[in-house]
Amino acid sequence: MNTLLRIFKHRLQDSTDAARALSPAALARIEDRVRDSERHHTGEICVCVEASLPLSYLWRGASARDRALTQFGKLRVWDTEGNNGVLIYLLLVERQVEIVADRGLNQHVSAAQWQAVLDAMRADFQAGRFEAGLLAAVDQVDRLLRTVCPLPAGDQPVNEMADAVRRV
Predict the structure, then answer these.
(1) Distance CA 28, CA 24 (A)
(2) If we measure between CA atoms, which residue out of 109, 93, 107, 99 comes closest to residue 77?
């Protein structure tokens, strides 16, 4: 895409567009799904939704993946005891979704498995079904985390991160 056209599209989007795409009720349902998921494994799931990229990212031609990696650090998803945090990042204006997983998970989950998760939900995002796509993403990540880092029998879940969807 032409850089100036991309900048123009991104500048037309702001936080009100994110609020329209995901109502407070939708955000609550996603948060509930994350909370329920984390009762069954030791991983941490963080959902981040951004309407558009900052101008500095657009000027240098950065991708949604670049921004997801930055948000992974800013939101401290990497800062879990088991190195098992997962960021599900949605860039609304481009309808792009990215998953960034901590190194503890990437030792057990292949790039192909993460790609399969992305592929399973991409159609929802492309069609503008953001809530459905994010719920599917949480469910897919949940299935992987239950396999890779299950909560040991008798242990109580430890919630290291807030479950609320971050809108940046």
Answers:
(1) 6
(2) 99
